[in-house]
Write a structure and sequence with these properties.
The protein is α+β, with helices and mostly antiparallel strands and about 280 residues long. It is built from eleven helices and eleven strands. It folds into two domains: about 90 residues, 2-Layer Sandwich (Phosphorylase Kinase, domain 1); about 180 residues, Aminoglycoside phosphotransferase (APH), C-terminal lobe (Aminoglycoside 3'-phosphotransferase, Chain: A, domain 2), CATH 3.90.1200. The chain is globular, with a radius of gyration of 20 Å.
C-alpha cells in the first residue's frame, strides 16, 4: 500500500514528520524531480506545511536550513517568506509553514514592473543584513566554472575553448560578499494580491550581491528593460561593475549549460547555451 507521503520520504524522514504531526495528510507533490529532493505540501489540523527532504549527498536542504535559521526572518516577520517549523540536518529534512500565493513565473505578474520593484526592495533588505570580505570566493567560483567545462556537456567546442581562455586569464581578487538567495527569479516568487513573496532557499550562500541579478539579467530583463529599471529603483542602486559582472554572467552560463545537461533539463540547457553566446560576446 502506498504511504501517506507517496513514497517520497525515507522511513526515518517519515517517522520524524509523523512524530511531530500525528495524522499528517498529503495535499500535493511540489517536487521538481530533477534532483533527489522531495517537496511536499501537507495538512495537519487546520494548517498547511511544506516538507523538504533529500538524500544524504544533497546539500541544498542544509543551505535552506542555514538561511532560515539566520537571515530569512527579515522577510518571514512580514509574511513575505515562510517560517521554519522543524529541521533535522542528520535526516536532511526541514518543515516550513505553507506560504499562500500564486507562482509569479508564467503568470501576469512575471512581466509587471511592480513585481520587480518589490523584488529589488526585498533583495536589498536581505543583502544589507551583513557584509563580509572573502579572499577566496572569486577564485573558487572561477575554478568551479572551469570544472563544469571538464564534465560531460553539449557546449560547442569553440565556445568551450573561448570560455576556458577567458576564465584562465582572470586574476581573482578578494570579494565583498553578502547573504544571497542564489536563485532570484520568478520561479521562486509568489504573488498574493499585489504582495510579492519569496520561497526556496536551497542555493543560499554568501556571495557578491551582483550574483543575485544574473538570472534576471539573462532572462526577463532581456525582453523588457523596463523591468530592470523597476528592479534597481526598488534596490536603490546598481552596484554592477563591468569586468566582474561579465565574468559572473559567463560563469552562470557555463554552469547552467552543464548542470542542465547533467540533470536532463533540456529546456534549461538550451537557455544556458543562449546565455553562453551572450556572455562570450561581452569579451
Amino acid at each position: 500500500m502506498e504511504s501517506w507521503h507517496r513514497d517520497r520520504l525515507s522511513v526515518t524522514q517519515a517517522a520524524f514528520v509523523e512524530s511531530r504531526f500525528s495524522g499528517v495528510r498529503f495535499v500535493k507533490d511540489l517536487s521538481w524531480d530533477l534532483v533527489d529532493s522531495a517537496v511536499l505540501e501537507v495538512e495537519h489540523g487546520e494548517r498547511r506545511y511544506v516538507i523538504k527532504a533529500a538524500g544524504p549527498a544533497n546539500h541544498h536542504i542544509g543551505r535552506e536550513a542555514d538561511a532560515h535559521e539566520s537571515f530569512t526572518g527579515i522577510w518571514a516577520s512580514q509574511g513575505r517568506a515562510p517560517r521554519l517549523v522543524h529541521t533535522d540536518r542528520s535526516l536532511n529534512l526541514l518543515v516550513t509553514e505553507y506560504l499562500e500565493g500564486c507562482l509569479v513565473e508564467g503568470g501576469a505578474a512575471e512581466y509587471a514592473d511592480d513585481t520587480y520593484r518589490q523584488a529589488g526592495q526585498l533583495l536589498r533588505a536581505f543583502h544589507a543584513q551583513t557584509v563580509r570580505m572573502d579572499p577566496q570566493y572569486e577564485a573558487a567560483a572561477t575554478a568551479k566554472a572551469m570544472a563544469w567545462l571538464e564534465k560531460p556537456h553539449r557546449i560547442e567546442e569553440a565556445a568551450v575553448e573561448r570560455a576556458r581562455a577567458v576564465l584562465a586569464a582572470y586574476r581573482p581578487e578578494p570579494a565583498t560578499v553578502v547573504p544571497t538567495h542564489g536563485d532570484w527569479q520568478p520561479r521562486n516568487w509568489l504573488i498574493r494580491g499585489t504582495e510579492l513573496r519569496v520561497i526556496d532557499f536551497g542555493r543560499f550562500e554568501f556571495r557578491p550581491a551582483m550574483t543575485d541579478f544574473c538570472r534576471l539579467a539573462l532572462q526577463q530583463w532581456r525582453s523588457s528593460p523596463a523591468l530592470e529599471d523597476a528592479f534597481f529603483e526598488g534596490y536603490g542602486s546598481d552596484p554592477r561593475e563591468g569586468r566582474l559582472w561579465n565574468l559572473m554572467l559567463l560563469r552562470e552560463a557555463v554552469s547552467t549549460s552543464a548542470w542542465a545537461f547533467h540533470v536532463g533539463d533540456h529546456k534549461f540547457e538550451e537557455q544556458g547555451h543562449r546565455m553562453l553566446v551572450d556572455a562570450l560576446a561581452n569579451f
